[in-house]
């Protein structure tokens, strides 16, 4: 069985004020060309199909056109899950009707425990679809109050999945989660940390032949080759400038063979460094329509550099001085690292202290946690 694994499309994404819809449409056409050439038996989309809970009309049309082409023209089954950017209710609308065309959309807790099995050359392959869920949702579903963290939530889900697993079948898990050891970029929205860490230990997935992951945008394996993030098919921040975007091809026979197929954007997203005059002459960098972050190496004052540089580089999204960038990076790096490890409650407490000049009173902490829980639950239900 040949499987194409992709994730994190973020349709409707805006990067530095620029709507990426046209670029995403071009990416989708390239993806369709890859699918027609590779002829996979199954397509996996591991979450974050949209960039926000209420996607723009153009994004919905892009996804609808893709689903229609794959299911009604190419007749290839699709296994898709909602990610932390998707609205489970909106993405999952009509999901039960789509099964007739072999479009399987998992967006709820109940969907997790409805595996889909295909038989190819006498070998059963079972797909377990685990959309992004908050620990609070897992706790409510199982009515187990000790579930507080993403690790505990996934552990409980896997425990239940294992009860259904047929030892004669191969098993593929599709999940949208943050696995400990994965490499992050700036464009990934941090998962909630209410009650603890968002990280999940990879050892939970030992029972599965292949684990198709979404959430982290850089293609990468975690511990073993068969636990893999496909990465996003496009670059969505300058922290991804050096990523090689691709889709993953999984060929399951007696063993699991993996390969990647690159996706090359019409307009790349790059970081360019140079002196202002050299950039203007085109000597250090040829004219380009790529999306650029330009770091100027000059020390002196420069009058209206963006307007002049855009004659050669019309798609400058960001311009900065390298010396200022280095200074700010060194100044803020420790603060950023510290905040990345904070829970939402700790972030609020830090904000409270900054605003009020005093620590958050202990007796108010339970009310803050309750309010944050309610907000996060409401966001997930939008």
Please tell me about this protein's structure.
- The chain is of the alpha/beta class and 382 residues long.
- It has 2 domains: 2-262, Metallo-dependent phosphatases (Purple Acid Phosphatase, chain A, domain 2, 4-Layer Sandwich), CATH 3.60.21.10; 269-324, no CATH class.
- The protein contains 12 helices and 19 strands.
- It has a 6-stranded mixed beta sheet.
- A hairpin with a 3-residue loop joins β15 and β16.
- The chain is globular, with a radius of gyration of 23 Å.
Roughly what percent helix?
A: 25-40%
CATH class of the largest domain: Alpha Beta
Going across the biggest sheet, name each strand in turn: 6-5-4-1-15-16
> Average pLDDT across residues?
89
* Proportion of residues in β-strands: 15-25%
Please give the number of β-strands.
19
Under CATH, the topology of the largest domain is which? Answer: Purple Acid Phosphatase, chain A, domain 2
Low-pLDDT residue spans = none
| Cα Rg | 23 Å
- Return the domain count: 2
Shape: globular
Q: What is the first-to-last residue Cα distance?
A: 37 Å
Which CATH architecture of the largest domain?
Answer: 4-Layer Sandwich
For the largest beta-sheet, the strand count, sense and barrel status come to:
6 strands, mixed
